[in-house]
Design brief:
Glutamine Phosphoribosylpyrophosphate, subunit 1, domain 1, 8-stranded antiparallel beta sheet, binds 2-deoxy-2-amino glucitol-6-phosphate, 20 helices, single chain, Rossmann fold, alpha/beta
């Protein structure tokens, strides 16, 4: 998704802006650009492709200037090309924008009717022209931005500069993230803390509809009515080192291997020998959870898959009804909300537009309360929830979620256990499940040892165009997550089915060109799964089975292989089985030579609808 960096400083800002954009590359983008005020001139460079291509243009012809804005664009209105890349300039104004302006067409037509000629297809250039037109009427830059954002419908985070006011940058946000980095004699704007951590660790998180003016010496925040508002400065805990790739070839590989630590951090001080500790969901959390009679879970993508696992868990152990839905569906339909239902939003970034909108919509629907399970403490989802349980995964840079998923499962397991205990789960069983959960980091560590075998297996997938993933029960969401990983980073079409559904349609696809990946835990459904796998074998399909060490299997299939995984118990098995599937996708993608950390067309944090 688009990334924004802006700076006003005594030093030349173009190198700082470029460094900030590089930190935002993980969000996904297709072009990059920057604009700097040099005297009363706007100097602008833009390029399709990577930040380093724009950087080489700058290095070939560097320019000074202490005020500037920069952007990585993820195309929404108009093709990814130089003309549509940001910053957009109109008259004296240059602007960068993340989001979508829904009423841009009539605004654009009105400007065209007055003779304005546009050079791009973007909604952003319309904003630049509107702001410039407001300055023509005698307004200062801040007033002009305020006047324009009041007219806008949709979502935006913007940073704007003007030739007439060379010592300031104006920022504004609604529905897309923007924060201020407070330096000494210099100040910054960025889409997230990571973009600014190289220059400062002091951050001001802007609220919805805030407009901010930064100069070298001052940061002033205003509400949409133009009145000053107070916003706290926070010290970010992010360290510049946390986002280094180190010895690993890709961030995704590093993040897969960080899972034992990330899961252990997520469980730390939250569960002990006598069970889940009190007050881990925030003030009033335990009292609220005691009243829960049902749960609705809303999320997107990988986070949605974590929610599906939680449905199996909460219904089995806490005996509470659970509904799980993707946020983009939930927000536009009239879901029935029974009394005393808890709304749970799951999001790595906490800025996913659909999840955030669904959470806001839930306020109208009469829930008992909202709980955010999230990885970014300062994010909008966390700030707007009643209760929160942070996943302590650390920054996740690879677009494909890995440690975010397993830490979400760890957090959801804590929620399950708290609800189950509250609802009278047998104490011995409860304590056994708690012990199992505490062993999860160790079991993930063991699963990671399978990497060499999985790497060899990945070779089989190089020429493939399709793959099927099968699981039963709580392993079905794991199969869904495995297929999502494979398709998003290797570009192999993959689908997941509950294994019992195979004969109702997908079996028609199975032939010698179709690898079928199955997850086989040692449980009551094992025999049924084995019958499903026989159906694949009989059609000559290549079977790749990840089977629990304790699961009796019938030896190696004639085509394919069985890899043994120590799942560590039925409760934590979904998290453990996820790891070999992540490794499989990763190595298939590496062998197929795709851009593993930034797969085509995808963004890390989807801040538009
Ligand atoms: C999965 O690998 C993707 N990164 C994607 O599906 C992601 O999980 C989804 O966009 C939701 O993001 P969130 O957890 O930040 O809300």
């Amino acid at each position: 998704m688009c990334g924004i960096v802006a700076a006003v400083a005594q030093r030349d800002v173009a190198p700082l802006l470029i460094a900030g954009l590089k930190e935002l590359e993980y969000r996904g983008y297709d072009s990059a650009g920057l604009a700097v005020l040099e005297g009363n001139q706007v100097r602008r460079i833009r390029a399709k492709g990577k930040v380093r291509e724009m950087e080489s243009l700058y290095q070939a012809d560097p320019f000074p200037g202490g005020t500037g804005i920069a952007h990585t664009r993820w195309a929404t209105h108009g093709m990814p090309n130089e003309a549509n890349a940001h910053p957009h300039v109109a008259g004296r104004v240059a602007i960068v924008h993340n989001g979508i302006i829904e009423n841009y067409a009539p605004l654009r037509e009105a400007l065209q009717a007055r003779g304005h000629v546009f050079t791009s297809e973007t909604d952003t250039e319309v904003m630049a022209a509107l702001i410039d037109a407001r300055i023509d009427t005698g307004l200062g830059l801040r007033e002009a931005v305020l006047a324009v954002v009041r007219e806008l419908e949709g979502a935006y985070a913007i940073a704007v500069i003007s030739r007439d006011e060379p010592d300031c940058v104006i920022g504004a946000r609604r529905g897309a993230p923007l924060l201020v980095g407070v330096g000494i004699g210099e100040n910054f704007l960025g889409s997230d803390a990571q973009a600014l951590i190289q220059v400062t660790n002091k951050m001001i998180y802007l609220d919805e509809d805030d407009v901010v003016e930064i100069t070298r010496e001052r940061v002033q925040v205003f509400g949409l009515d133009g009145r000053p508002v107070e916003r706290e400065t926070h010290e970010s805990e992010l360290s510049a080192d946390a986002v280094e790739r180190g010895e690993y070839r890709h961030y995704m590989q590093k993040e897969i291997f960080e899972q034992p630590r990330a899961v252990a951090d997520t469980l730390e001080s939250r569960i002990g020998p006598h069970g889940v500790l009190p007050n881990i969901f925030g003030v009033g959390g335990d009292e609220l959870l005691a009243k829960v009679r049902g749960v609705h879970i809303i999320a997107c993508g990988t986070s949605y898959h974590a929610g599906l696992v939680a449905k199996y868990w909460i219904e089995e152990y806490a005996r509470l009804p659970v509904a799980v839905e993707v946020a983009s569906e939930y927000r536009y339909r009239e879901a029935v909300v029974p009394a005393d239902t808890l709304f749970v939003a799951i999001s790595q970034s906490g800025e996913t537009a659909d999840t955030l909108a669904a959470m806001r919509e839930s306020r109208r629907r009469g829930y008992l309360g909202t709980l955010a399970i999230c990885n970014v403490p300062e994010s909008s989802v966390v700030r707007e929830a009643d209760l929160k349980l942070m996943t302590r995964a650390g920054p996740e840079i690879g677009v494909a979620s890995t440690k975010a998923f397993t830490t979400q499962l760890a957090a959801l397991a804590l929620l399950t256990l708290r609800l189950a205990h509250e609802r009278g789960l047998d104490e011995t069983r409860y304590l056994a499940l708690c012990e199992q959960l505490q062993s999860l980091p160790r079991m993930i560590e063991q699963a990671l040892q399978l990497e060499p075998e999985i790497q060899a297996l990945a070779e089989h997938f190089i020429p493939r165009h399709h793959a099927l993933f099968l699981g039963r029960g709580v392993q079905f969401p794991v199969a869904l997550e495995g297929s999502l990983k494979l398709k998003e980073i290797s570009y192999i079409h993959a689908e997941a089915y509950p294994a019992g559904e195979l004969k109702h349609g997908p079996l028609a696809l199975v032939d010698e060109d179709m690898p079928v990946v199955a997850v086989a835990p040692n449980g009551p459904l094992l025999d049924k799964l084995k019958s499903n796998l026989q159906e694949v074998r009989a059609r000559g399909g290549e079977l790749i089975v990840f089977a629990d060490k304790a699961a009796p299997m019938d030896g190696n299939p004639s085509r394919g292989s069985v890899l043994r995984v120590d799942a560590g118990g039925e409760f934590i098995a979904p998290a453990v089985f996820t790891v070999p599937l992540q490794l499989l996708s990763y190595h298939v993608a590496v062998l197929r030579g795709t851009d593993v950390d930034q797969p085509r067309n995808l963004a890390k944090s989807v801040t538009v609808e």
